[in-house]
Specification:
The protein is an alpha/beta fold. Helix content is 36%, strand content 21%. The strands form three sheets. The protein has a nine-stranded mixed β-sheet with strand order 14-13-12-11-7-10-9-8-15, sandwiched between helices. Strands 3-2-1-4-5-6 form a six-stranded parallel β-sheet. The protein has a two-stranded antiparallel sheet with strand order 16-17. Helix 1 packs across helix 12 and helix 8 packs across helix 13. Bound molecules: 6-O-phosphono-beta-D-glucopyranose (BG6). 6-O-phosphono-beta-D-glucopyranose binds next to loops.
Length: 491
């Protein structure tokens, strides 16, 4: 990072939720850790009539409510002067001219600029065009980068349009598409588990792995977001981005380096090898469901068929993964918040110990706990003491809180914002990656909406999902697993 020239961060949509819940708590924590550039301006831009003073008050309240760390008044009083606010309309060029003039007064000469799009995607093109028209994207003296929030489009076509719009005025290297899952420590740790150790990778393939389950369960319902959510549903909200990113990290080949493009090339390769689910296979490989009571949520359209839960069975057509099913599920209003990846190994080829009648050999499992209670468990069989030959499943456990301390894990946005400031795009999605992911999700979403296939199932709030999802795995002789009091249980 060039420390000699100022850095300005402009947040479009600065009066919204994301800014006060995530962005400012993350920027502030980076500032407290002295990781932000020395000469820093954070300018909020939105239509809400705030003065800079009111904006700071609003953000201070947000910090007290949402920051996951304690801070002192002194730290705040050092940070607050970096925050200012400019009221403007996104559709109005005059507002962007005012912004350009305002930034010039703050920066006095060359400066780096990070534009943060914390606004709905329908507004991206307007803002990008206005920034370009007012010469604010020109890299003459400092860099210009743009962080784009999700959702990046609502289907392949709209994602392509957004990409082509961005590429008219920005180089791909200037674009940072956010998927906050990539900023989570435990998600980054997938690659470290695989490639910073020698013991897992030799087994990480179809010869030793039976199947992989990825669960991202949320305890909350749609809450106040139904206005957005009802129009997109779970596959667009969670699978196109977060779950497919998890698949790509679990399944990718080792990259030639830890650099952004080397990593993203491997992710693109593995996403391209996923067998598309379309036509007839949508009914066979997907389950969609809505929680009971969803129709009564505020802002849900009467008779809505939006899925709040989905389960998919995917196959990856390459040498490493041929024939290994990847079972993915995510839903709102489920039994508890739990995100985990279970690598289920094959059973031993021979049952050489006498087993009690009816008991089967148990497979080993490596469980990556993404959240909460972040950690990794390796489950294997041990001889139960004082028995002739009975085995019991036991766990070797790693918990972040125990090994690194209870506050070791930073907010995902913190890492992502720091990377964007430092010009490292490894944890951001590239244009082609986003489009391939949409290409996989589109046929599923279309079949659900137009053919009504498979039928929409219902599940009870607070449950682990519909019976149809259990049936999807039962067809393959498997069952979903989840964690309870440190033990893996079948749902
Ligand atoms: C967002 C989705 O991307 O991720 C939300 O839009 C979802 O619907 C959220 O609740 C889940 O994120 P996390 O970090 O709480 O797992």
């Amino acid at each position: 990072m060039n420390k000699r020239i100022p850095t300005s961060i402009v947040i479009f949509g600065a009066s919204g939720d994301l800014t006060k819940r995530k962005l400012i708590p993350s920027f502030f924590n980076l500032f407290r850790k002295r990781k932000t550039p020395k000469d820093l301006n954070i300018v909020g831009f939105a239509w809400t009539p705030f003065t800079s003073e009111q904006f700071r008050d609003h953000l201070h309240k947000g910090l007290l409510e949402f920051a996951n760390y304690k801070f002192t008044d002194e730290e705040w009083s050092l940070f607050a002067p970096h925050l200012t606010y400019l009221q403007g309309k996104y559709e109005d060029q005059a507002g962007f001219e005012k912004l350009a003039a305002y930034l010039d007064t703050l920066e006095e000469g060359d400066a780096n600029r990070l534009y943060y799009m914390a606004i709905p995607p329908s507004l991206f093109p307007t803002i990008v065009t206005k920034l370009y028209a007012t010469h604010q994207l020109k890299e003459d003296g400092g860099w210009r980068r743009m962080v784009v929030e999700k959702p990046f489009g609502t289907n392949l076509e709209s994602a392509r349009e957004l990409n082509s719009h961005l590429h008219k005025v920005l180089n791909e290297k200037q674009v940072y598409r956010i998927d906050h899952y990539l900023g989570k420590e435990t998600v980054q740790n997938i690659l470290f588990t695989r490639f910073a150790n020698t013991i897992f990778e030799p087994l990480w393939n179809r010869n030793y792995i039976d199947s992989i389950q990825i669960t991202v369960a949320e305890e909350v319902g749609v809450g106040h977001r139904a206005g957005y959510y009802d129009g997109v549903g779970v596959v667009r909200d969670m699978f196109q981005n977060h779950l497919l990113q998890l698949v790509s990290l679990v399944a990718m080949e080792p990259p030639s380096s830890f650099k952004a493009d080397a990593m993203r090339n491997e992710k693109v390769k593995v996403l391209s090898a996923i067998q598309p689910i379309n036509g007839q296979s949508v009914a066979e490989n997907t389950v969609r469901a809505q929680y009971r009571g969803y129709q009564d949520e505020k802002d849900v359209k009467p008779g809505s068929t939006t899925a709040t839960y989905a389960a998919l069975r995917l196959y990856i057509n390459n040498w490493r993964w041929q024939g290994v099913p990847f079972y993915l599920r995510s839903g709102k209003n489920m039994a508890e918040k739990q995100s985990q990846i279970i690598i289920r190994f094959k059973e031993p080829p021979l049952a050489m110990f006498p087993m009690p009648p009816g008991q089967k050999m148990t497979a080993n499992m490596l469980v990556l706990y993404l959240q909460p209670d972040e950690g990794v468990h390796l489950r294997f069989e041990a001889k139960a003491p004082d028995t002739m030959a009975e085995t019991r499943s036991v766990d070797m456990e790693f918990h972040y809180a125990e090994s690194f301390g209870p506050t070791a894990i930073p907010e995902a946005y913190e890492r992502l914002l720091l990377d964007a400031l430092q010009g490292d795009a490894s944890l951001f999605t590239r244009a082609d990656e986003v489009e391939i992911a949409w290409g996989l999700i589109d046929p599923i979403a279309q079949s659900w909406e137009t053919e009504q296939t498979p039928p929409l199932a219902t599940y009870e709030p607070g449950s682990w999902g519909p019976a149809e999802a259990d049936a999807l795995l039962a067809k393959d002789g498997r069952a979903w697993m989840h964690e309870e009091s440190s033990h893996m249980l079948e749902d």
